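Encode chain A's predicted structure.
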Amino acid sequence: MAGQIADAALRQFELFGVARSTMEDVARRAKVSRVTVYRRFPSKAALVDAVAMRELRGFLDDLNAAVAEIEDPGDMIVEGFVFTLHAVRTHRLLQRLLESEPEAVLPHLTVDGAPFIAAAREFIVDRRRQLDPDRDEDDSRTVADIVVRLILSYLLTPQATVDLDDPAAARDYARRYLRPLLLRTDD
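Encoded structure for chain A:
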């Protein structure tokens, strides 16, 4: 039931935004009662958070699948970065909210972004652990934190000195700057 409600909320938010959507709108779209929605999600904020976290988990699953067959750690970093840029810059709800309701999404990506940053950071730490099980855990966590915050920066302010909408330019950027950071061997 929670998945059905989250699906309906996602579609509702994509079409009308968060501010113009009510719990009743979501209930109607999910074909359940408003009480059922409130039983699963005690507030609109809780529903928005649940949808956002579900989207993040789905993205991380997609990212994992996109790089799963790549054996070279450096190539995995490069392709993961290109995939991530494309995914965040084409995500329908995220782009809609950034354009029309930044006040609805910016807190989740900035001052209230700790849960999202932590989930993305742990994903990178886990991948790094798979590539190099002997890597210092604190170092991995710090480097992952830098990468997540860098990607958030490019999401929130897409204009850059490099045209990251061009996959070849994004690959070159990742190869030159991110790959050495993530694969560095000096301690």
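The chain has two domains: 1-42, 45-183.
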